[in-house]
Design goal:
By secondary structure, this protein is α+β, with helices and mostly antiparallel strands. The chain has three helices and four strands; from the N terminus they run ββββααα.
């Protein structure tokens, strides 16, 4: 059986049970990670470009999991192409 990977609908990181954010009622968020979403609200107000700039610092982690060798700037560009498909940035 094929498992579907969920992604945080704000930063795009894989949304596993141990990193799920929390809703206002304390339940686990099915859409956002704990870095982006706690107690039913976003942990920071930022633009999509600011989010990509922040998340691009984790390029080594991305490269490790994908077998790629992107630079931070290349990864930022990948994120900016991916983010419009996420709920937070889908305008």
């Amino acid at each position: 059986m094929e498992q579907t990977i969920k992604f945080c609908q704000s930063c795009g990181m894989p949304l596993t049970e141990n990193v799920q954010g929390t809703n206002a009622d304390g339940s686990k968020s099915e859409e956002y990670c704990n870095y982006c979403y706690q107690d039913g609200k976003f942990t920071t107000e930022c633009t999509m470009e600011e989010m990509a700039g922040f998340c691009s610092q984790f390029v080594d982690e991305y490269n490790k999991h994908t077998g790629q060798n992107l630079s931070r700037e290349e990864y930022r560009k990948v994120l900016l192409q991916f983010y419009p498909s996420l709920k937070r940035w889908d305008k």
